[in-house]
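Fold this: Glutathione S-transferase family protein
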Amino acid sequence: MHELILHHYPTSPFAEKARLMLGFKQLSWRSVMIPPIMPKPDLTALTGGYRKTPVLQVGADIYCDTALIARRLEAEKATPALFPEGQEFNVASVAQWADSVLFQHAVSLVFQPQSIAARFASLPPEFLKTFIADRTALFSGGQASRLPLEQAQHQWPILMARLQQQLEREAGDFLFGEASIADFAMAHPLWFLRGTPITAPLVDDYPAVAAWLGRVLGFGHGSLSEMSGEEAVELARAATPAPLPEDGLVDPNGFETGQRVAIAAIDYGVDAVEGELLFSGREELILRREDPRAGTVHVHFPRLGFRLEAR
């Protein structure tokens, strides 16, 4: 059985979401550090061009986007459940909202000038220029647009007041009583804001929210050991992809298995990955591709939030 390998970097909010889910599941995993900005040669050898962080590797199977990574971790270890029985729709829907709406508010607030100055104070000015250019490219071409800072500041008290109310009225310690994917999706933008004293009060001024966030972060990151990017690529080359799922569906737009396609995110980081469509399911799309370094890999994407085009 192959190890779980997470390709990530320390300050990525979505990587923190994945790390916390690994901790919640009490899983052991290998940690591959990737650059926060392009180029990312080892990562893109595995993904075929997808550049967003994090990516989960299991042998020669590559999982993109934390929404799908959560479902792969659920398959790895069923309990404790990220999608508790009877709450699947609720927790997945709240997680989707948090990963998009709440996250976009947090990005605008974190990247205000004072916060940027504090966050990058110890780094050379040249890095900040390179980082901003990289993030400008990341957010170009997709449906997501940067929320103006004034609008994010205007709306933030509403979002936090609603979250505070939910936590105060919920009988359990988490958003839906027991911890779920909704908690981890809601937590990572707030963890991001906690990164500087400029934006930390936007979380800490809400006592129930701060206490809940402490409980979510308390799950930790599980048991990890380091691995190099080169080792991960070589491991993929030596591995055989896992058998395909059996619960496929007739694609609503007529795409067929065996067809040459491209898959790309629709919000940001819209770099397309080309290959052979192997599987089209309710939640998941699987692409087969050949790479000079990684060999034959199966790249997995969520259906929601990604587009499929013929090539």
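The domain at 88-217 is CATH 1.20.1050.10 (Glutathione S-transferase Yfyf (Class Pi); Chain A, domain 2). The mean pLDDT is 96.
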